[in-house]
Specification:
By secondary structure, this protein is α+β, with helices and mostly antiparallel strands. The chain has helices at 12-19, 24-28, 31-39, 44-62, 90-98, and strands at 2-11, 74-78, 84-88, 101-111, 114-123. The strands form 2 sheets. Strands 1-5-4 form a 3-stranded antiparallel β-sheet. The chain has a two-stranded antiparallel sheet with strand order 2-3. The termini are close together. Bound molecules: coenzyme A. Residues 8, 56, 59-60, 63-67 line the site of coenzyme A.
């Protein structure tokens, strides 16, 4: 059963502006997300913008937005084919459990100045 769906869009130029601000990336992104994005070279900002959109989309799928969520507790990872998925820790795990979420689905896209993410929360069958 689907419990929630969320969508968000993030401006890549806004993300570029954040990159120069001390401590901001470490506050919003899981260390493994930053490491993976750095490996993408020139796609660094696109990758981070899409991942930030995924965090906001997760909050919308929960129905409570970002309140009560530590953003770096939400990690987007890619499998060997590039397919993204979400791992949750700490505050994000607590919020997911609160709504009875058992599985998460995420889809990302980025083009020109925008990155978009959609997140679906599925409950236990
Ligand atoms: C829900 C939330 C994520 C909205 O994000 P946003 O980027 O400000 O706004 P968006 O334009 O993407 O989305 C707006 C839509 O979200 C939806 N929305 C609002 N509250 C929501 C909630 N609790 N759950 C799900 N969806 C919600 C609404 O449909 C709204 O559009 P509407 O007012 O026309 O109906 C917001 O509650 C939030 O937590 N914002 C915090 C942003 C923040 O702290 N960023 C940190 C770094 S700057």
């Amino acid at each position: 059963m689907i419990i929630g769906i969320g969508i968000d869009i993030v401006s890549i130029s806004r993300m570029k502006a954040w990159i120069g601000r001390v401590g901001l990336l470490d506050r919003y992104f899981h260390p493994a997300e930053l490491a993976a994005a750095r490996e993408k070279g020139t796609a660094f900002e696109h990758s981070l913008a899409a991942r930030f959109a995924a965090k906001e989309a997760f909050g919308k799928a929960l129905g409570t937005g970002l309140s009560g969520l530590r953003l770096k507790d939400i990690e987007v990872v890619n499998d060997r084919n590039g397919k993204p998925s979400i791992r949750v820790y700490g505050s994000a795990r607590t919020q997911l459990d609160r709504v009875g979420g058992a599985e998460l689905f995420v889809s990302l896209t980025h083009e020109s100045d925008n990155a978009i993410a959609v997140v679906v929360i599925e409950g236990a069958r």
